């Protein structure tokens, strides 16, 4: 069983199939080997699907928030700095998913074509059949995931038609016709849904051991499989591979995008579809009660992270990457300089202002009790969890960080190259028990989620509000209002007044929409959502990024960086190289 799960298959693939970009279709002479020769070598064959997993872009943090109104980079060579300041182009696109995702789909298609011919065991056709089913289910689910990334990054209007990418359901070779037009966005979404349906037919909801034969699918019982046979293939040893639950979550993510204003006029996905798909995942979790009580601080729940083992997930996380060993790279990049970091991501005043007062009212509301001369007092507790502001603490010794312009440490506004440009540093995602002092470096384990449950709850809230209104349930037993209330209660909002602001908007769909979008902004900040959310909402992209300059205790807001985006940049470009190569390929309007 171990070789089925072992990542070694990926390295064999690198040596045999991935010696260069061209080798995907025409291997080098010394590595020339037809696929059939790998049918009796499970590791070789499974290298195909391992390549799909290795190409998932959420295997690492992107920090595309630095190209939005939520954050800036203190490094002018950062690719998101160039995107935000007017240098985004079809031949200069740090957000490109075309090459990576299409290569992943090529490998997945090869796996789908060969899975039924591979011998995963020695003379056990039943186990071979189950392994083939599982791997095909994974491949279909992963192909849907990469279609989502392609549509998100490259879907757009060309000649008045909303287009997606070319739909490829067969592997390509030297005889293939590469000069084919893009399919419509709608066709791509239907292909994505079809792939999810196929994945759900083949995969269990979760990879867990079963205790009796009644818990197995009927088709395997009929074939004569035992509990041990089933657990060998679909049991807990396969945790963190793409499961039915994960496939459902991917479908909800894609449906939310498709139902949103920037895409909704040219496809058949509705808000109700998105709400229903998200509700399926939430109901598997037990409904509203499935919102993890400690999900707000998932990245720094030390005992939980340090005790993760056997592929299990913390309560907040639906799908994650491998934990790996202790590290301090994230802290090295983002800690303030006094904590021996490079302070790379600087949250904006725009984002800080989005955090309400602890009583639940926006700080612009007269009932918020907001004091502009003492701006961090009485605020949403998430502000202190997520952002280092002047006087907040950080690091293993819980040191106070002074970001004021007249501060005397390297943390002060614009003091040195790695100092903050906005008056703020990122605190979220970082383990404060990491020590970066060169004389006593201390590293810690980190968890990197691909999908969090809070995201799924927020997908439901947004879609359900649009489909059914704030308190409508669509037959699911919980409403957008219920989700928002649970999320804000977990954050410590409105506990003393029954969240009277939320109650004041519970019958107002427009006000609830803005509140849900703001909750999404806060809960998912710095996790790579804001860049895409602003675009799917078809919102203004050019709001300047602001900061705060504190002199003598007096905070003054100032513009840090203008955002330079043209109207057509609601949608990303097709790579310029593709337009040059293929006459049938249309570029999105404006690029």
Automatic annotation (TrEMBL):
Presence of keyword Membrane: yes
Domain RagB/SusD residue range list: 336-591
Protein name (Swiss-Prot/TrEMBL): RagB/SusD family nutrient uptake outer membrane protein
Organism: Litoribacter ruber
Domain SusD-like N-terminal span(s) in chain numbering: 60-209
Main location: membrane
Family: Belongs to the SusD family.
This protein's UniProt keywords: Cell outer membrane, Membrane, Signal
Highest taxon, organism lineage: Bacteria
One GO cellular component term noted in the UniProt record for this chain: cell outer membrane
InterPro entries to which the protein is assigned, alphabetical: SusD-like_N, SusD_RagB_dom, TPR-like_helical_dom_sf
Compartment(s) where it occurs, according to its Swiss-Prot or TrEMBL record: Cell outer membrane
């Amino acid at each position: 069983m171990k070789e089925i799960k072992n990542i070694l298959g990926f390295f064999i693939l690198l040596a045999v199939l991935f010696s260069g970009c061209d080798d995907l279709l025409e291997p080098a002479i010394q590595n020339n080997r037809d696929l059939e020769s790998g049918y009796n070598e499970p590791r070789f064959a499974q290298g195909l699907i391992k390549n799909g997993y290795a190409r998932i872009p959420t295997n690492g943090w992107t920090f595309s928030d630095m190209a939005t109104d939520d954050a800036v980079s203190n490094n002018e060579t950062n690719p998101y700095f160039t995107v935000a300041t007017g240098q985004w182009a079809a031949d200069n696109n740090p957000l490109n998913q075309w090459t990576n995702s299409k290569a992943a789909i090529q490998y997945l298609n090869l796996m789908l074509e060969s899975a039924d011919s591979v011998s995963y065991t020695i003379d056990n056709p039943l186990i071979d059949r189950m392994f083939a089913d599982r791997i095909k289910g994974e491949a279909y689910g992963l192909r849907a995931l990469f279609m989502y990334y392609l549509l998100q990054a490259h879907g757009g209007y060309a000649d008045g038609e909303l287009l997606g990418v070319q739909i490829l359901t067969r592997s390509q070779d030297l005889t293939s016709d590469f000069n084919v037009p893009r399919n419509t966005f709608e066709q791509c979404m239907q292909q994505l849904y079809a792939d999810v349906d196929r994945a759900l037919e083949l995969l269990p909801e979760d990879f867990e051991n079963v205790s009796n034969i009644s818990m197995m699918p009927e088709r395997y019982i009929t074939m004569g499989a035992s509990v041990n046979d089933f657990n060998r293939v679909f049991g807990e040893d396969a945790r963190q591979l793409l499961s039915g639950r994960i496939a459902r979550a991917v479908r909800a993510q894609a449906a939310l995008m498709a139902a949103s204003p920037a895409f909704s006029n040219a496809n058949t996905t509705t808000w109700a579809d998105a709400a229903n798909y998200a509700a399926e995942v939430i109901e598997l979790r037990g409904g509203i009660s499935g919102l993890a009580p400690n999900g707000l601080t998932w990245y720094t729940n030390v005992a939980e992270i340090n005790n993760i083992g056997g592929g299990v997930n913390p309560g907040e996380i639906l799908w994650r990457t491998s934990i790996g060993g202790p590290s301090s790279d994230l802290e090295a990049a983002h800690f303030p300089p006094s904590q021996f970091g490079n302070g790379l991501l600087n949250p904006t005043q725009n984002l800080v202002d989005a955090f309400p007062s602890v009583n639940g009212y926006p700080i612009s509301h007269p009932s918020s009790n907001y004091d502009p001369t003492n701006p961090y007092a009485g605020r949403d507790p998430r502000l202190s969890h997520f952002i280092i502001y002047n006087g907040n603490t950080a690091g293993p010794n819980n040191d106070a960080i002074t970001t004021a312009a007249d501060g005397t440490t390297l943390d002060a506004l614009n003091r040195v190259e790695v100092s903050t440009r906005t008056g703020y540093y990122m605190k979220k995602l970082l383990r404060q028990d990491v020590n970066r002092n060169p004389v006593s470096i201390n590293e810690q384990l980190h968890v990197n989620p691909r999908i969090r449950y809070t995201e799924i709850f927020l997908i439901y809230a947004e879609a359900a509000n649009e489909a059914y209104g704030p308190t409508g349930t669509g037959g699911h037993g919980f409403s957008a209002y219920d989700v928002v209330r649970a999320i804000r209660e977990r954050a410590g909002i409105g506990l003393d007044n029954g969240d009277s602001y939320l109650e004041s908007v519970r019958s107002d769909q427009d006000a609830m929409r803005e509140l849900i979008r703001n909750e999404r902004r806060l809960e998912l900040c710095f996790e790579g959502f804001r860049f895409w959310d602003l675009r799917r909402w078809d919102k203004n992209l050019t709001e300047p990024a602001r900061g705060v300059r504190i002199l003598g205790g007096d905070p003054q807001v100032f513009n840090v960086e203008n955002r330079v985006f043209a109207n057509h940049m609601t949608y990303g470009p097709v790579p310029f190289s593709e337009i040059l190569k293929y006459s049938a390929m249309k570029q999105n309007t404006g690029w």
